[in-house]
Structure formats: C-alpha cells, structure tokens
Amino acid sequence: MHMTIWWGYDIGDFLFYGFKVTTIGALIGICFGVAALAFLFEYLKLLQAQQRHRQLSIKAKQLRTICPSESATLLDESQRGPKITFINRVGFPFIDGLLWLTSFNLG
C-alpha cells in the first residue's frame, strides 16, 4: 500500500493475499466490482426499508380493525381485519433477518 499519491496501476495484493492487480484491465475491473458491491449494498438497504413499510402497514390495518370507530358494534363480523398468513408471521421476519445479515456482511 502506497502512503503517498501514486499514479501507477500495479497495486499488488488487493484485499486478500495472492489477489494481485498488475494490469490496467484488472484495475478497471476492480473499480467496477467495488462500485457494483456499493450499489448492491444500497439496494439491500432499500429492500429493508420496503420490508419494514410492508410490516408496518399490515400492523396498522390490524390496529384499525381492533380499535374501530366509537360507533362500531363490538361483535360485528364485517369488521374483521386482514388475515394473518404464514408469510406474514414467519416469512417477513425471516426475510428481514436475511436482508440484515446480507447487508451487515457486505458492509
């Protein structure tokens, strides 16, 4: 690793011992690879935000049905909330954990 400004392309080992960058093409490939990893990291953060939004919207719908307006009857069957499926109960936390683990390891 050079400690001053250096304009060469032979940077030697990159990230791992034995992964040598000695040509201009390899240096350009490394630049594109790092940019692709950065893009993937930001995309995973976007997917996490969308996942949390979906979970919160389902919870909000459930709360609206649990606490309807003051004039609603308490035992009215038409006020049933959204059905909680297996995907909502198990899939959302699994996907959320998988996204977090992937973005944590990539970051």
Automatic annotation (TrEMBL):
Keywords: Copper, Copper transport, Ion transport, Membrane, Transmembrane, Transmembrane helix, Transport
UniProt subcellular location: Membrane
Top-rank taxon, per record: Eukaryota
Protein name: Copper transport protein
UniProt organism field: Popillia japonica (Japanese beetle)
Membrane topology of the entry: Multi-pass membrane protein
Pfam families (UniProt xref): Ctr (PF04145)
Transmembrane segments: 24-44
Similarity section: Belongs to the copper transporter (Ctr) (TC 1.A.56) family. SLC31A subfamily.
